[in-house]
Amino acid sequence: TSTTKILMGRLPWLFVLLLIQSSAAAIMATFEQLLDKELVIALFVPMIVGSGGNAGNQPGVAVTRALGAGEISSKSLWRLLTRETGLGFITACIL
C-alpha cells in the first residue's frame, strides 16, 4: 500500500478526532471560572483523556488481531462488535 493511500485513509479520522477534541476544549472553556477556583479539577483532565484514549484503542486492537488471525466471519463480526461495544460501555462506567 502506498504512503499516500495510507495517509488518505488516516487523515479523515484524525480530522474528526481533532474536531471532537476542539469541542471538548470549548466545553471546558465554559467552566473556566470553576477551573480557576478549583485548580485540582484541571489536574485530572489529562488522566481522564489518557484513559479514554487507552480504552478506545483496546477494541481496535482486538478487532485488528481477530482480522489478522482470520477469526472474523460475517457471522462472528456482529458478535465481536456487540461484545466490544458492551465492554466499552462497561469500561466507561467503571472509569
Secondary structure layout:
Layout: H1 3-30, H2 32-37, H3 39-68, H4 74-94
Helix pairs in contact: 3-4
Task: Give a quick account of the main beta sheet: strands, pairing sense, barrel closure.
Answer: none
Count of helix runs: 4
Strand content: under 5%
Shape by Cα distribution:
flat
Total number of beta strands: 0
- Please compute the radius of gyration using only Cα atoms: 18 Å
Can you give the helix content as a percent range? Answer: over 70%
Q: Cα distance, first to last residue?
A: 38 Å
Low-pLDDT stretches are none
Structural class computed from helices and strand pairing: mainly alpha
Give the topology string: H per helix, E per strand: HHHH
Mean pLDDT: 81
Characterization of this structure:
The chain is mostly helical. 89% of the residues lie in helices and 0% in strands. Helix 3 packs antiparallel against helix 4. The protein is flat, with a radius of gyration of 18 Å. The termini are far apart. The mean pLDDT is 81.
